[in-house]
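Example noted here:
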Amino acid sequence: MGITQEVAERLRALAAGEGSPEEASAWALSVMEGDAPELEEENVWNALDQLSGADLMLDPDTPMHGEEQFQQWLREFLKNVSVT
């Protein structure tokens, strides 16, 4: 599975409340450190940047982002990329 597909899958999982924001963030950060050609695509990079902050907290009990925000990220990503 390519990075673009994996981004879409991780966003889908978060949007459905099934994914772990911590795992998505760690994955995105590790991918961003690589040299895959897909990283040069602006929409892929922007989605990875968003995913890298998926686990940010406003305070110890309040996540900064929730399912609604993840759904918005997913819609925007799918609007701008071709996922096969």
